[in-house]
């Protein structure tokens, strides 16, 4: 029979444990600072992308020189000085959480140095018009800030490095998308897949606090505005099913391309050229991005945020081939190895897919299919259906679309799993190759 400790003695011991309370206070302080860092990174990225579009409007030919040159220099700096910041940032945090990674080796994946480099190089990528997002980088940025707290937290506080990394990574999503709930779900679904990483109440409080910091600065508004849903009927069934199937297929192919190309296991001429001349390969990818930008009148440049918002608000005509062009632009940006995420571009691709299905089926309430496409494609790429569902759900006015969103993300994720291994888990295993080979 289990004997419970006396209530008053346990309460007294808890209240008088100064080091434990100091540790908790420091975790929450660094959580707030993580949120502020991501907010600052967001503002910097938005300013950089606006500056690129201003440059493009003033001198239409400027991207021909600026974009490939910037892409080549970013890849050169990344590979030479900070290889730990290449790509999204989510795989690095997942790699740092693996049990075989010793404490001193976590600096290969998360640190204040990598946080600063990630901010600067991702911002430069947006300034160059590259097709990347800031949400994945926000995970690594916030995790680096939170992980630094371990230097100040007393050992007796019993706050693990894993807890700090989970809190920081999820706080990055919460602050980037202005959604604390999305951060909590991301922590559970992506960063806490092993039982020993399950988050306790302090970690969850840190995630929510970081998200609330962003909410207090941005205001209680959604990432893309509000999607107004009309009364739904059975006419939605066929278009919604088409969106789910197409999202799963396209998202699975996209994830498989990223895994195979990043791993460099293919024997095609482009993979061999990238292996031997990564900087020149990046410059070539930059030229392709410029060609796609010219063909789409600049629509494929950047994160895709403005294009997605325009689709949701039905602001005029959009480029007919936006979906495949943005797909290619994002794939090449990631393949080149620049620091940058895929969340925002994936939402843009999914939104365009939903819009295309609405046009194909003559479905009158296009925003409904756009929302389904955003959730479906993001879920298929990341194979994290709950995270995709929560992020898009918070953009919906009311609960009319909740069941449709849930069904869409489950169907698209199921299809994606038939095509590709989990994206971030696969990329995390590639990150582990960077561990010292002299380990016993």
Search tags:
Clc chloride channel; 19 helices; two-stranded parallel ribbon; 440 residues; mainly alpha; 2 strands
Mean of residue pLDDT values: 85
**SSE string, helix = H, strand = E?**
HHHHHHHHHEHHHHHHHHEHH
Q: What fraction of residues sit in β-strands?
A: under 5%
Q: Strand order, main sheet: write it out.
A: 1-2
For the record, the CATH class of the largest domain is: Mainly Alpha
Category from helices, strands and their pairing: mainly alpha
The CATH homologous superfamily of the largest domain is termed Clc chloride channel
Percent helix: 55-70%
Q: What would the CATH topology of the largest domain be?
A: Clc chloride channel
Rg result: 22 Å
- Tally of extended strands? 2
Q: Helical segment tally?
A: 19
CA distance, first residue to last residue:
45 Å
Low-confidence stretches: 195-199
Domain count, please report it: 2
Shape: globular
Largest sheet: 2 strands, parallel
CATH architecture title of the largest domain: Orthogonal Bundle
List strands and helices in order, with pairings.
Layout: H1 7-15, H2 18-58, H3 62-81, H4 90-96, H5 112-127, H6 135-148, H7 161-176, H8 180-191, H9 201-218, E1 227-228, H10 237-263, H11 269-276, H12 278-295, H13 305-312, H14 322-336, H15 343-361, H16 366-382, H17 385-393, E2 396-397, H18 402-419, H19 423-431
Parallel strand pairs: 1-2
Helix pairs in contact: 2-5, 2-6, 2-7, 2-9, 3-12, 4-19, 5-6, 6-7, 7-8, 7-9, 8-9, 8-17, 10-14, 10-15, 10-16, 10-18, 10-19, 11-12, 12-14, 13-15, 14-15, 15-16, 16-17, 16-18, 17-18
């Amino acid at each position: 029979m289990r004997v419970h400790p006396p209530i008053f003695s346990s309460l007294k011991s808890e209240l008088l444990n100064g080091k434990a309370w100091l540790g908790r206070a420091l975790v929450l302080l660094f959580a707030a600072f993580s949120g502020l860092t991501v907010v600052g990174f967001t503002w910097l990225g938005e300013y950089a992308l606006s500056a690129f579009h201003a440059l493009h409007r003033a001198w239409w030919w400027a991207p021909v020189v600026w974009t490939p040159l910037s892409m080549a220099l970013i890849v050169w700096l990344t590979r030479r000085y900070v290889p730990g910041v290449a790509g999204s940032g989510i795989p690095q945090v997942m790699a740092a959480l693996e049990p075989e990674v010793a404490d001193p080796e976590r600096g290969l994946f998360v640190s204040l140095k990598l946080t600063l480099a990630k901010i600067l190089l991702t911002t430069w990528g947006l300034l160059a018009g590259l097709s990347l997002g800031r949400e994945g980088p926000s995970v690594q940025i916030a995790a680096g800030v939170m992980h630094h707290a371990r230097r100040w937290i007393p050992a007796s506080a019993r706050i693990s490095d894993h807890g700090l990394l989970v809190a920081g990574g999820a706080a990055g999503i919460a602050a980037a998308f202005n959604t604390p709930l999305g951060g909590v779900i991301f922590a559970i679904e992506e960063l806490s897949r092993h039982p020993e990483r399950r988050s306790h109440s302090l970690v969850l409080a840190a995630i929510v606090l970081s998200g609330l910091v962003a909410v207090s600065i941005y205001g209680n508004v959604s990432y893309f505005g509000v999607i107004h849903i009309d009364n739904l009927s059975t006419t939605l069934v066929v278009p919604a099913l088409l969106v789910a199937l197409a999202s799963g297929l396209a998202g699975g192919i996209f994830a498989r391309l990223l895994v195979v190309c990043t791993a460099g296991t293919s024997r095609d001429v482009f993979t061999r050229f990238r292996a031997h001349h990564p900087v020149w390969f990046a410059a070539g990818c930059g030229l392709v991005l410029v060609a796609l930008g010219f063909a789409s009148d600049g629509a494929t440049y950047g994160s895709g945020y403005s294009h997605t918002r325009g689709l949701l608000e039905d602001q005029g005509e959009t480029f007919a081939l936006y979906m495949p062009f943005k797909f290619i632009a994002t794939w090449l940006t990631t393949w080149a190895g620049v620091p940058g995420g895929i969340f925002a571009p994936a939402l843009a691709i999914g939104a365009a897919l939903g819009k295309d299905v609405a046009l194909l089926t003559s479905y009158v309430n296009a925003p409904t299919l756009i929302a389904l496409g955003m959730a479906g494609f993001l879920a298929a790429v990341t194979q994290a259906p709950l995270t995709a569902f929560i992020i898009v759900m918070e953009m919906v006015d009311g609960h009319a679309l909740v069941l449709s969103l849930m069904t869409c993300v489950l169907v698209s994720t199921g299809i994606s799993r038939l095509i590709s291994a989990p994206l971030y888990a696969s990329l995390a295993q590639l990150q582990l190759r960077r561990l010292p080979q002299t380990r016993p």
